[in-house]
C-alpha cells in the first residue's frame, strides 16, 4: 500500500481523508467502544471475553470523560496496528498482517528523539536482509498536545531536483519535499540517488531536518543476470519501503507519526519507481543498451525492456541478500489471505486497481475477479493519508486552522 498518486490507473482515487472533524486529540467514545469490542471479540481466546470487554470499556469511558482521550494497552495497540494493515485495501501483501512487529515509542515526541528512533527502526527491521514488517508508534495526539509528524512520504526516499534550465535530476516524485528540505538548510549534493533527510515536526520544536546515517540505509545496485551492460545505467534502489506520513487511527486515537515497513515487490521498483515517465524514466536508455528496435511502438520494446528490468531488480536484491517478493508469488498469497479472511467470517477490503500488479496483470489470479465493495471512511483501525501530509510531501506549507 502507499500514497494517492502511486497508481495512475486507479479509476476513482479517493480524496485524502479530511482531518478528524472532532477537536484534535479528543477520542470519540463510540469509536473507542467499537474498537474495544472488536479487539475483545477477535482475541477472545486470550481470555478477553464479554466480561473483560465491559470492564475495560468502563475504564476507557472514565479516562475519556476525565481527559478527553485514553491510553491503549500494548496488546490493544499491537492488534490495532495489525488490523490497520489488514484493512489496507491497496496492499497486496497482507497475508502476514498478524505478525507485524510493534516498536512502542509512545513516550516520544521531541523531534530529535523521533528522528533517532526512525533510524533505529531502519536498523532493526533489516536483520541482515531478512526484513521484518515493523511499525514504530510515537506519541498520539491528545487534547493537551498534538503528537509529532514526519513529513517525508517514506523514511528513505531519493531527492528530486529541478535544474534552472528545467531538466530534472533524481526522483521526479520528490521535487516538492526536496525543495522544502533545501529551504530548511539541507544541502542536496545534486545526484540522482541522494537520500533525503528526515523532516520532523512537533509544536515544541518546530520543523527540523535530520540526515540519515549512511549505514542505516541499505541500497541495492541494479544488475542483470545476463546483460552486464545494465550496470552501466548506474541504477540502485533502497531495500526498505517505509511509509512515514500516514496517520494510524485506532479506536478514536490518532497516532500522527507511526512509520511502518514491509519488504518490496519488484514491480514497485522495476515497473514504477524507475520507469514512470515523471520519475526515473529508464526504459528508453535500457532499450538502447539491450539493442532493442525502438523505431515503432509495435516492436514492444517498452514491454521487453520492462520485463528485463524486473528481472534485474529481483536478481539484484537476491544477490544482495535483501528480501523481495515477485508479483506471481504475492498474487497467490493474496488469494490465500482472502480465503483466510473469509474463513474467519470477515470481508477483505481490496482495491482492484491497486492490487493488480503493473506488470503482466492478466497472468496473475488477482486480475480475474472483483472484490467486495467497502467504505474507506468506515474502515477502522486504519492508516490514513491526510491533506496536510499530502501537501507537505509536495513541499507546500499548509495553512492551519485554529
Ligand atoms: N510503492 C512504494 C515504493 O515503491 C512502497 C509502498 C509500500 N510497499 C511495500 N512493499 N510495503 O516505494
Task: Summarize the structure in words.
The protein is α+β, with helices and mostly antiparallel strands and 402 residues long. It has one domain (21-27, 68-347, 382-393). The chain has 11 helices and 16 strands. The strands form 6 sheets. A 4-stranded mixed beta sheet has the order 1-2-13-10, sandwiched between helices. The protein has a 3-stranded antiparallel beta sheet with strand order 3-6-7, with helices on one face. The chain has a 3-stranded antiparallel beta sheet with strand order 12-11-16. Helix 1 runs antiparallel to helix 2 (50-67), helix 6 (266-273) crosses helix 8 (301-320) and helix 7 (283-289) crosses helix 8 (301-320). 42% of the residues are buried. The chain binds arginine (ARG). The site of arginine has 11 residues, from strand 14 and helix 6.
Distance between the termini: 32 Å
Strand numbers in spatial order across the main sheet: 1-2-13-10
Note poorly predicted spans: 1-13
Structural class by sheet pairing and helices: alpha+beta
Write down the overall mean pLDDT: 94
The main pleated sheet reads as: 4 strands, mixed
**SSE string:** HHHEHEEEEHEEEEEEEEEHHHEHHEH
Overall geometry comes to: globular
Could you tell me the strand content as a percent range?
5-15%
Bound molecules: arginine
Q: What is the count of helical runs?
A: 11
**Radius of gyration, whole Å:** 22 Å
Helicity level, as a percent range? 25-40%
Amino acid at each position: 500500500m502507499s500514497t494517492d498518486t502511486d497508481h495512475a490507473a486507479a479509476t476513482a482515487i479517493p480524496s485524502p481523508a479530511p482531518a478528524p472533524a472532532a477537536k484534535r486529540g479528543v477520542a470519540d467514545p463510540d469509536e473507542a467502544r467499537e474498537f474495544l469490542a472488536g479487539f475483545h471479540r477477535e482475541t477472545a481466546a486470550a481470555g478477553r471475553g464479554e466480561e473483560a470487554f465491559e470492564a475495560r470499556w468502563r475504564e476507557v469511558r472514565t479516562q475519556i470523560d476525565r481527559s478527553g482521550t485514553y491510553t491503549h494497552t500494548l496488546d490493544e495497540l499491537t492488534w490495532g496496528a495489525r488490523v490497520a494493515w489488514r484493512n489496507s485495501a491497496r496492499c497486496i501483501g497482507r497475508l502476514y498482517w498478524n505478525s507485524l512487529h510493534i516498536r512502542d515509542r509512545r513516550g516520544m515526541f521531541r523531534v530529535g528523539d523521533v528522528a533517532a528512533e526512525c533510524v533505529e527502526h531502519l536498523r532493526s527491521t533489516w536483520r541482515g536482509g531478512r526484513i521484518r514488517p515493523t511499525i514504530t508508534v510515537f506519541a498520539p495526539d491528545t487534547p493537551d498536545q498534538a503528537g509529532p509528524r514526519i513529513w517525508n512520504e517514506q523514511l528513505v526516499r531519493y531527492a528530486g531536483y529541478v535544474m534552472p534550465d528545467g531538466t530534472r535530476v533524481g526522483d521526479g516524485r520528490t521535487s516538492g519535499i526536496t525543495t522544502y528540505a533545501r529551504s530548511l538548510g539541507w544541502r542536496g549534493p545534486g545526484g540522482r540517488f541522494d537520500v533525503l533527510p528526515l523532516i520532523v515536526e512537533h509544536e515544541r520544536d518546530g520543523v527540523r531536518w535530520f540526515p540519515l546515517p549512511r549505514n542505516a540505509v541499505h541500497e541495492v545496485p541494479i544488475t542483470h543476470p545476463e546483460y552486464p551492460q545494465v550496470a552501466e545505467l548506474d541504477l540502485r534502489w533502497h531495500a526498505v519501503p517505509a511509509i512515514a506520513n500516514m496517520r494510524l487511527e485506532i479506536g478514536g486515537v490518532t497516532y500522527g507519526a507511526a512509520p511502518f515497513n514491509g519488504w518490496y515487490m519488484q514491480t514497485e521498483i522495476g515497473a514504477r519507481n524507475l520507469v514512470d515517465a515523471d520519475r526515473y524514466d529508464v526504459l528508453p536508455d535500457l532499450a538502447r543498451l539491450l539493442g532493442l528496435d525502438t523505431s515503432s511502438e509495435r516492436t514492444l520494446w517498452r514491454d521487453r525492456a520492462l520485463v528485463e528490468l524486473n528481472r534485474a531488480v529481483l536478481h539484484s536484491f537476491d544477490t544482495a541478500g535483501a528480501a523481495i517478493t515477485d508479483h506471481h508469488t504475492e498474487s497467490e498469497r493474496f488469494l490465500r489471505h482472502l480465503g483466510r479472511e473469509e474463513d474467519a467470517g470477515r470481508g477483505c477490503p481490496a482495491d482492484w486497481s491497486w492490487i493488480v500488479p503493473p506488470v503482466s496483470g492478466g497472468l496473475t489470479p488477482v486480475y480475474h475477479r472483483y472484490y467486495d465493495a467497502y467504505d474507506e471512511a468506515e474502515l477502522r483501525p486504519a492508516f490514513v493519508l491526510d491533506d496536510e501530509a499530502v501537501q507537505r510531501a509536495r513541499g507546500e506549507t499548509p495553512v492551519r486552522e485554529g
